Amino acid sequence: MSSSDIFIGETIGTAILILLGGGVCAAVTLKRSKAQNAGWLAITFGWGFAVLTGAYLAGGVSGAHLNPAVTLGLAIQGGTAWGDVPLYLASQLLGAMIGAVLVYAVYYGQFHAHLTDPEIIKAQPANEAMVDQTAAPKAGPVLGIFSTGPEIRNGVQNVVTEIIATLVLVLAILTQGLNDEGNGLGTLGALVTALVVVGIGLSLGGPTGYAINPVRDLGPRIVHAVLPLPNKGGSDWGYAWVPIVGPLIGGALAGGLYNLAFA
Questions:
Q1: From CA 233, how far away is CA 126, in angstroms rounded?
Q2: Alpha helices in 63-154 (DSSP H)
Q3: Assuming Cys at both sites, which of 17, 114, 196, 235 could form a disulfide with 31, CB separation 3.0 to 4.6 Å?
Q4: In degrees, to the nearest 5, what angle opens at C-alpha 164 toward C-alphas 163 and 166?
Q5: Among 39, 18, 11, which Cα is nearest to 27's?
Q6: What is the tens place of the pLDDT at every residue in 20-40?
Q7: pTM of the predicted model over 0.85
Q8: Which residues contact residue 165 at a Cβ distance below 8 angstroms, ignoring those fewer than 6 apart?
Q9: pLDDT digit string, tens, across residues 50-93
């Protein structure tokens, strides 16, 4: 496939992934949303459908990696040329940022209603001088719409969680080609991947929110940092390395394990 195919497919596919995935988080989180407090099941299935839609749209154009961990795993496995990896990653990051901006556009009124609500304002520190500088930085009240965060902040555990969850995802994608013809599952593969993502969310998502995708976290976190949201709080950059490093290690391990066990 050409460079333009990779750029267009990965940018649009990842933007749709983040629009629908971040959209379900916004729907569940924000005041004046009809889906507020719908819960974890809504989020996990929403992200599954987001993966299904993005992968189906981009599959015939770029192969629908939509995730640097998938791209890295495929490069190690041999299914993607190393020379194409930088373009995949840059396109995915751009798409993730576009998707996050679109979530903001869709929920513009709800964001402002939520962040100007007296209950939300009261919960925030009055000023920086009141913040305990020795404590972990407090994430803003809508940061969870844009990026992930741990329930227990333990760097080693959080990275291990992301490694294991991403290994499951990428290995499930790589092994789709192990059928009688060796041609993969075609468009059905998008559905299988979506169901795997739902399963990961339900089973492994509790500790960290299952980023399992570096740009799914980094792109929207950048957007959160620059959007003109009132009372938005911090972007928790001290944690941002975990959902980058963990999924990349998990994707690399999946590629290596595939070559050892299935190739």
A1: 11
A2: 68-77, 85-106, 108-115, 118-123, 143-146
A3: 114
A4: 65
A5: 39
A6: 999 999 999 999 999 999 999
A7: yes
A8: 200, 204, 205, 210, 212, 250
A9: 999 999 999 999 999 999 999 999 999 999 999 999 999 999 99
